[in-house]
Design goal:
heterotrimer, A mainly alpha (304), B alpha/beta (417), C mainly alpha (282), B: 417 residues, alpha/beta, D-Maltodextrin-Binding Protein, domain 2, 2 domains, five-stranded mixed sheet, four-stranded mixed sheet, 13 strands, disordered N terminus, C: 282 residues, mainly alpha, MetI-like fold, 76% helix
Amino acid sequence: MTDTTAAAPHHSWFHRNRQTITPWLFLLPGILFFTLYVVYPIIQSISLSFYKWDGLGEATYVGTANYERLASDRAFTVSLFNNMKWLLLYLLAIPAGLFIALFLNQTVRGIRIYKSLFFFPFVISQVVVGLVFTWFYDPNFGLLNGILGAVGLGPINVLGDPALATYGIIAAGLWPQTAYCMILYLTGLNAVDPEQIEAARLDGAKGWRMLWHIIVPQLKPATFIAFVVTIIGALRSFDLISIMTNGGPFGSTRVLSFYMFEKALSEYGFRMGYGAAIAVVLFFIMLFFIAYFLWSMYQDEKGR
Amino acid sequence: MRSMKKLMLAGLAATMLSSSAFAEGLSGELRVFSDMSNPAPRAVMEGMVERFGAMHPDLDIELTVIDREAYKTQIRNFLTADAPDVANWYAANRMGPYVNAGLFEDISDLWAEPEFAALASTKGAMTIDDKQWGVPYTYYQWGVYYRQDIFEELGLTAPATFEEELANCEKIVASGRACYTIGSKFLWTAGGWFDYLNMRTNGYDFHMQLARGEIEWTDDRVRETFANWRKLIDMGGFIEDHQTYSWQEALPFMINGDATAYLMGNFAVPHFRDGGLTDDQLGFYQFPVINPDVAMAEDAPTDTFHIPANAQNKEAAREFLRFIVSADNQTMINAGDALGQLPVNAGSSVDDDKFLKAGFSMLSNDAPGGVAQFFDRDFSAEMAKAGMEGLQEFMVYPDNLDDILERLEFVRQDTAE
Amino acid sequence: MFPTPLERTSRSWQIGYQSLLPVAVIAWLLPLLAVAMFSVKPSSDFTGGDYWSWPSRFAGFENYGRVFTDSPMPRYILNSFMITIPTVIGAVALSCMTGFALGVYRFRFNLVVFFLFIAGNFVPFQILMIPVRDLTIDAGLYNTKLGLVLFHIAFQTGFCTLFMRNFIRALPFELIEAARVEGITEFQIFWHIVLPLMKPAIAALSVLIFTFIWNDYFWAVVLTQGPQAQPVTAGITSFNAQFGVAYHMLSAGSIVAALPPVLMFFLMQRHFIAGLTLGAVK
């Protein structure tokens, strides 16, 4: 590493230290942007969560009052609980994606088109997915009740029933998320070692046993990425809720990300500090996962 | 040199002449932000700017029309960051956050001018802390729009009392219809129902005390309001699944005859007409009497113009507000082919439209109790949001009332701090 | 290969599989197909309460025509492009540099900086919302496309850096070593040696970021208002308000809004999938 500088001792200071300086020069614009728009705002939000501020006048320091208030706020509890539902149920995208990937991992005519069509929901914006599913669930003319009616069930008003609405939205979210996981697994399956499979076949392994003991372990990198993107997706669930129910009926489909927006910036929301406190809670939930992701990646880096 | 002369002239004029004559010298830039984004209101707004511009050729008017829904969340941004000279908003408590934050200009001086006496009916709604913070340009009645043809078919007449109302409703339900359509997905429609039921049960003053947070939500009188509401809910008076619909999505129920009436603001009338209802099919009646001991009061939301405290050209802005409230302008902009609403200025004339005339006569003669703005304008922002959510829940699960009221009471105490 | 390749299975399963495929696709895309059908129905079908029958006549041209002539939709679409394209260029440019720095050089804080970018990329948006909004307002960039673009570039740099750095790590390092021995400057190494090798990564990342940014809704709502600056994801809600319960129009509008990333995906499929699945195999 140092032989270039040693070969040219009479060069300028910059030249001698270029191995040290160059990376920072290349990093500079990226770090500046990232600090200004991501790192610093996180610090600001955390500090704001200790203030009472309506976004218009002066902010007043209130200590931990915002956090104490969270404890007695039922809407917050509902949101937190819904977040847990999202986190758990969203993970279904991983086995579902694996299942579809296994189904499509064949080399028949036109399979590429089928793969693209299955993947296609992921490309559509969540806003459109939300609209599409809102109509799908519509109690009046929705396709869902049409189908249920045909088999003698229903009608149900998925988005109007506080017991069902959150699940209805999660189902809509699973649609693109499953497609995402599917594509990860399709790529992963391509890289599975065929020799191992043949060897296992000779040992008499097939079906579920083969899948569980031979295939799934080799798909570990794909599963890790699928897990990461699904967790992030679950905690970012905002668009679908905003489009499909706007948090209703009577606040039953709120999650932290939506509640925070509602408290701080929506039509009736003037509690910036309180909103920031909600965001901080969300941030710490996420931080738990981020720490796990980074730790896994660090193990990987060390292994190289 | 010329500008110096102009300035001196203007100064002279200001001391010697009336305000309108002074306005001849208006110059510079006037920036107007408006939420009148639907096609008809937009044309009205553009027309006003054009006519005002013609009166003041030296004034450079820049109009920005923002989507009406987006405007509600954006106003706080531009009032602090990029204030125009004139901006739309709403009356009553809805101005509160901006008035308290010092973002609206105190325009009590305008209201002290003799011409403003004609606006006296809305002065209260524009007043916070004994000062006035904006001017009204239009208002509209709320009330029950109903299918006259179906009422005739069932042998019903428009009810004057709640007992008649309930009796009507029973027959309507028996005919396989719902009495009322409503779409409560965006909550505020339920606020309209509460306003009327509460004002009819407990009166205007009580309603306003509740709005100001002076009465507990768990008060028995509030419960009485909900008990009256429940009578209609329990008999199947409202369409099902209303929590999934917007107010527009609830319109077809009435247009198709699946529901016979809609408690709404007058802005719904063009939608009924577009949907194919003729004026023979569509009728209007005032929300019936519940408690004969309280005076009838109405919801009549007033839409307004304000001068932001950070405005650059306040002089031109004041003149623009004078122009907006003038009797002639209000007649023109509220006409049936324009906004199709009611002028606030007592000197204006009301368009010759069946529903506008009915509304005007109702508000002028049959609302002795007072005129409220609307649930989400009279209650503080946070209370309004939590309140309307509770009202929606009540409409779907009336049994949850105790829980709902306790929650609302919690919010009331919390926001009172 | 797993599962067992079709050629090696029974004849009946082969036929069963081949016929199951189209059925499965239709079932999978059913909600979308319904909207596509709505979008070509004439309005008279809906006023009659007839939602589910086959369109009484094909009204696709007039419905889609109205989306472009009777609404601010073209404006929103244009805004989306004017937000998305500069963001793609900016984020890719920045991350080529950061990726190069983190992938090629060994220095003390390399991993720290790298992990900072990754962590930032996972952060929930809401924690950034209030400060970023205030920052944008203070800079006079509220309700401008530039305000949105700058934020997107900054935020996407996290993900892009992860992507680029890992890509560069996989490049043959000997090339760079050899260049250094010949006395080529570090910048020239970046420009003439590494950058040309990064072309596939740049292509993949561009397609991916295009889709992400096009589909952004949250920041569009927080940082913009109205047709001057709002992209189509946010614009569609006011489009919906304008057309109320005209489902044929709402459906057509939704499809128009969804189309550009879909086209991008089908045209650049290879790059797209390469981008998404980076790291799914080791």
